[in-house]
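From the pipeline queue, job 12 of 40. The input is one protein chain; the requested action is below.

Action: predict structure.
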Amino acid sequence: QVQLVESGGGSVQAGGSLRLSCAASGDTYWMAWFRQAPGKEREGVAAIRDGSGRTYYTDSVNGRFTVSRDGAENTAALQMNSLKPEDTAMYYCAARNGITSFPLQGSEYNIWGQGTQVTVSS
């Protein structure tokens, strides 16, 4: 079973930037980032497919966040710019093998990391 390890969370002021990284112990087809704030449902933030590098973003981060991956290294990253207080959440890396038509839906993923906290202060 592939395992995922996230790193790079932390605290930053509004308008700042953070970069999250996710290292997979084996090959994956889709890698994605989800977040969950206290009292809120888990939300798909960004996803990227191996090979084509096709990306998907939720509307609230489009233009501010960039997802990338290195297929040779089995890693993915989430560059977060212009951070807002509402971006505060636990961020999780997720992965799956095989196709999906819903890359931002958590139920599509069967491999999850332990999460890393992102806190944005105003």
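Job complete. The first strand starts at residue 4 and ends at 7.
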